[in-house]
Design goal:
This protein is about 0% helix and about 60% strand. With about 260 residues, the protein is mostly beta strands. It has one domain: Porin (Beta Barrel). Strand 16 and strand 17 form a beta hairpin.
């Protein structure tokens, strides 16, 4: 017996492109609360459709306090919400240390990135990346770093980055519009240690608030609450973190304008 007439062969649904090297772990990491200590003031000013500057003042009791200036330039070619080419980013602190990135689109499928870092007046690191974007795959070549494997779906992203120094895996899941969770595992073969981290994010649209919580295998717990104050362009953030094994506790408060 043959196949029924008119029945088309079943085809798998295209998976789509998994994204760039830098973006693969981004969704999982954004679920985790950022470390906060001391008082921080962030002021952002958009000078034009292509240029934006940010001033950051951080006052800390544990680490050095200081000032940072960030400038961002974007071009006219926009491929997505977070992809605009060319793009130039520069960040300098009060000691003169500089972090700079340059991103450029070489064609429909090729992207290039250069990263430079200085410490005061001394040049310390540089890195060049080349990336090819296919319909359902991404190939990345980084000078001095390994490549990676990754896959994605509409509501979840799982990634694996394997290199000579160890492995880095993460899983991100968006349960609904209010709840997101992320799990991350980092294994370092040189230090012979592994770290497991679980984080979650709760979004409260009616209260203009977002809460992020974290728990890791080092017995650290933490949380950050962000609250917007419309119609003012002001965001307040309060965070606290505790390590039970080391009996360490620190908290922080941030005001973001812009």
């Amino acid at each position: 017996m043959g196949n029924a007439e008119g029945r088309a062969p079943r085809r798998a649904q295209p998976r789509g492109n998994p994204g760039s090297f830098d973006e693969l772990h981004r969704l999982c990491k954004e679920v985790f609360p950022p470390q906060m200590e001391g008082v921080k003031l962030i002021v952002t000013k958009t000078l034009s459709s292509h240029f934006q500057v940010t001033h950051t003042v951080h006052m800390s009791t544990l680490g050095p306090s200081g000032y940072r200036f960030n400038a961002t330039f974007v071009g006219d070619r926009q491929l997505g919400p977070t992809e605009v080419f060319p793009m130039l980013l520069g960040d300098m602190d009060s000691s003169g240390s500089l972090n700079a990135q340059a991103l450029h689109l070489l064609g429909d499928h090729l992207r290039a990135k250069a990263v430079f870092q200085t410490h005061q007046a001394k040049f310390v690191t540089w890195q060049f990346d080349g990336e090819y974007r296919g319909e359902d795959c991404t190939a990345t070549l980084t000078l001095g770093n390994p490549d990676l494997l990754g896959g994605s779906a509409p509501n979840w992203v799982t990634t694996l980055n394997v290199g000579y120094g160890g492995a880095h895996a993460s899983y991100y899941h968006r349960a609904n519009e209010q709840v997101q969770v992320g799990v991350e595992l980092e294994a370092n073969t040189r230090l012979q240690e592994s770290t497991f981290t679980f984080g979650y994010q709760l979004t409260l649209p009616g209260a203009n608030a977002v809460f992020r919580g974290l728990l890791d295998s080092n017995w650290s717990v933490g949380g950050v609450l962000e609250k917007k104050l419309p119609p003012l362009p002001v965001t307040l953030a309060l965070g606290a973190f505790l390590n039970h094994c080391r009996s360490r506790f620190h908290c922080g408060f941030t005001v973001t304008v812009g």
